[in-house]
Design goal:
Length: 497
């Protein structure tokens, strides 16, 4: 099957000579990384038939530690399984993210989870995949998308082995080299990689005191260099990759030894690597997140350097934004423009992440100009408001979607406030909307099949009532029933019946 480069909405002409076909699935997701698995779980909360295709036959074997930031932790709490993930990770203070400038955590962070959760990437992926499958998603490994055609009603997906499957929608969560994005013909503008960095985990023979002293000395001017202990003689090692083997080939332990000698004058006796990798500073953003019935999420939609640890979190948050909207489209109650709000909301967020990683990279340069700016910013971060602003930016708890004019809380996520029945996030486990009503006078009426209602005059809110979307963002604030009904229609479609 040919896969034309779709750059516009599909035409019914593409199926003019083809018989209608029953849908095998409602949504096919390409890629079973954190974004794809999370999206599958969100869709299954609404009984959407989901198939996740993963080209790799086995999960990744290397044990890379990744970090879940505050907003991602909140989203996991909203679905009731943060404790399950947290049991496999290690918490550390929510500070030192921006350009690795080490400052203490400021007081008053607006979250019930003001920490970073470090967790091995294979463990996190396994947990997310297991969660999606427990909810009823199908996952098929060793199956790669080779092509697709879309029409007004759905997408026909061809696999590498020639099998064809029919679904209502296709979502590319297949990484920075996304096959789906390339076949779709969506531009991926940005900057190619200019510098590369080696990263890995390995054992270190040198005494810990010697490693710590040398690292502290070099970090004064070499901010793309560190050795961080994990215990048992194992360290996370990061060092510039200039002058090592070809970038198209995987790095070797000898590459690390060579670069450690070049920067530190010693290789610290590194040996027995757990995993070795290299990353560049390429920064790209897809021009469109949606073309007809095909969408992009996670690294398929945006790539950037890993500084600040935002990439995985950005993808998970894409999935939470898209999941309930795509489910609403499949279930038939989505307002006409609801699916378009996915790009309208998430594309600017990704632009902001790309910009802050660009800024952080400049601050890591050993050149005199960037170092002068770094020293100035380091002084400014002694002010709690500056430090807090940068932490909230990195951790995404400051994200505000544009829902029009209104109070500052409109469009923002609502923190996990205390209620007479416990905590707010405990009421969001099923991925439905929620009216939190302090007046005890309002109702969700005919939208009760999509929106829950809690009357609680004691709720810790600076507003009479709020309407929450399934992703926890505030869609409406007020106390007027007619105004509420209008916003229920805007976000949750026509009333049932």
């Amino acid at each position: 099957m040919d896969s034309p480069q779709f750059t516009a909405e599909p035409s019914s002409d593409s199926r003019a000579n083809r018989s209608p076909r029953t849908f095998d699935f409602d949504v096919i997701i390409a890629g079973c990384g954190p974004t794809g698995a999370m999206l599958a779980a969100e869709l299954r909360l609404h009984d959407v038939r989901v198939l996740v295709l993963e080209k790799e036959t086995e999960p990744v074997s290397f044990v890379r530690i990744v970090g879940l930031h505050m907003r991602s932790l909140e989203l996991l709490a909203m679905r009731g399984w943060l404790d399950r993930v947290r049991a496999h990770g290690r918490q550390r203070p929510a500070g030192g993210f921006f350009a690795a400038i080490n400052k203490p955590v400021p007081p008053g962070l607006d979250s019930a989870h003001p920490y970073l959760l470090g967790i091995p990437q294979p463990v996190l992926v396994d947990l997310l995949e297991e969660h999606a499958m427990e909810l009823g998603a199908q996952v098929r490994r060793g199956r790669a998308v080779a092509g697709f055609e879309q029409d007004d009603e759905g997408v026909t997906v061809e696999l590498a082995d020639g099998e064809q499957l029919r679904s209502r929608y296709l979502v590319g969560c297949d990484g920075g080299r996304s096959t789906v994005r390339k076949l779709l013909g969506v531009g991926f503008p940005g900057e190619a990689s200019r510098t590369e960095t080696l990263m890995g985990e390995m054992e270190v023979a040198a005494p810990q005191q010697e490693v710590a002293a040398k690292t502290a000395e070099l970090r004064e001017t070499h901010h793309r260099f560190w050795l961080r202990p994990f215990g048992g003689g194992v360290y996370s090692v990061v060092v510039p990759a200039a002058g090592v083997s070809d970038r198209a080939t995987p790095p070797t332990l000898e590459d690390f030894r060579q670069q450690l000698h070049a920067v530190a004058g010693t290789d610290f006796g590194v040996h027995s690597p757990r995993w070795l990798s290299r990353f560049g500073d390429a920064t790209r953003l897809a021009e469109r997140y949606r073309v007809g019935r095909v969408l992009l999420a996670g690294d398929a939609a945006h790539i950037h350097p890993p500084i600040g640890g935002q990439g995985l979190n950005l993808g998970i948050q894409d999935a939470f934004n898209l999941g309930w909207k795509l489910a609403a489209q499949v279930r038939g109650w989505a307002p006409e423009s609801l699916l378009d709000t996915y790009q309208a909301e998430r594309h600017p967020v990704a632009e902001g992440v790309l910009d802050n990683t660009r800024a952080q990279l400049e601050l890591l340069s050993p050149e005199p100009g960037p170092q002068a700016v770094r020293r100035l910013l380091t002084e400014l971060m002694d002010f709690d408001d500056v430090n807090r602003h940068l932490i909230e930016k990195i951790t995404a708890i400051s994200v505000r979607y544009d829902f029009g004019e209104g109070p500052d809380l409109l469009g923002r996520r609502l923190r996990d406030v205390e209620l007479k029945q416990g905590r707010l996030y405990d009421l969001l486990h099923h991925g439905r909307g929620l009216l939190l009503d302090r007046t005890e006078r309002l109702t969700v009426g005919a939208w009760s099949d999509r929106v829950d209602h809690l009357a609680d005059p004691t709720a810790a809110l600076d507003a009479p009532c709020v309407l929450l979307r399934p992703d926890g963002h505030v869609a409406w604030i007020g106390d007027d029933q007619r105004d509420l009904d209008s916003h229920l229609s805007r976000w949750f479609g026509r009333p049932a019946g």
